[in-house]
Amino acid sequence: MIIDAHQHFWLMKNREGQWPPPELAAIHRDVLPADLEPHLAATGVQGTVLVQSLPSVEDTRFMLDLAERHDFILGVVGWVDLKAPDAPARIAELAMHPKLKGLRPMLQDLPEDGWIDDPALDPAIAAMLEADLRFDALVLPRHLAALEAFARRHPDLAIVIDHAAKPVIAKGLYSDWRHSMARLARLANVWCKMSGLLTEAGDQRPEAVRPYAETVLDLFGVNRVMWGSDWPVLNLAGTYDGWFDQARAMVPEAALQDIFGGNAQRFYRL
User: Fold this and answer.
1) What single DSSP character describes residue 21?
2) pTM score
3) Is it true that the peptide bond before 20 is cis, omega within 30 degrees of 0?
4) Are 131 and 189 in contact (CB under 8 A)?
5) In this predicted model, what pLDDT tens digit does every residue of 30-62 receive, in sequence order?
6) CA-to-CA distance for 10 and 51, rounded, in angstroms?
7) How far apart are CA 148 and CA 132, in angstroms?
8) Domain 3-268 sits in which CATH superfamily?
9) Residues 37 and 79: beta-carbon distance below 8 Å
10) What is the mean pLDDT of the chain?
C-alpha cells in the first residue's frame, strides 16, 4: 500500500490571522479532500496521514471529522497544548477516536528554542504513551539539540522528525544539520520524514535536494524513513506528481515499499 505520510487540509475561515498569508496565492485558499484526490489517483497513493496545521483542538476535531468521511485518510496527527494542566485528560478524550494516531506541537513557531526540553511535558507524554500515540516534531535545525534531550528523556515515545528538520538547503547549510541529525538517528525511537525538501530548496532540480535526502536515508536507514508530500505547501515549490517521482528515484528499489508505505503503517499503526 502506497501511503503519503504527511499532508494537510484547511479552511481559510478558520485561519484568520494565521499562516498562509495572502501573498502565498497558491495555497491561500480552502484545501479539502476533493482537491487532493486527483493527485492520489495519478500517483497510485492509496492512503494518507493528515497532519495538523493550526495550534487548536478545534482543528484536530475538523481533521478527525474529515477522516470519518474519507477512507483514504488513514490517520490524523492532531494538536494539544502539552503543557496545559488538562493536557492528559484532553489527550485521553481525543485518543478515543480510532484515527487519531499522534500529536504535533508547532515547535518551529514557539519563541523558546528549548521549549521541548522541559519536564513540564512529562504528564502529557505519559498520557500519549498510555494512548499509544506518536509524536511529530515540527522543528528547525536550531531545535535539534533540545529535541535530542527530549527524545532521550522519553525513550519509549515514538518520534518522527517532520521535513528532515527543514535544513536550509537554499543556502547550502549542511554540516551542522547533518551532525545534529546523526545524533538523533542514533536513538532507536526517532524516525524521519522525507518531506518538505523542495520547499526548503526553492529548487526543483534533483541535485538540489538529493544530498539531503540521501543523508536522511544513510543516517536513519530504510526502516525509519517515510515519504510525505507536505501537500499543499508543496505547491509553493513543485507538484505532487513531480515530488512523488523525484523522491522515488532517490530511494533504493528494494526500499520503495517500506519508505512509501510500510514504514508509515508501522510507525502510526495504520
Assistant:
1) P
2) 0.96
3) yes
4) no
5) 999 999 999 999 999 999 999 999 999 999 999
6) 10
7) 21
8) Metal-dependent hydrolases (3.20.20.140)
9) no
10) 95
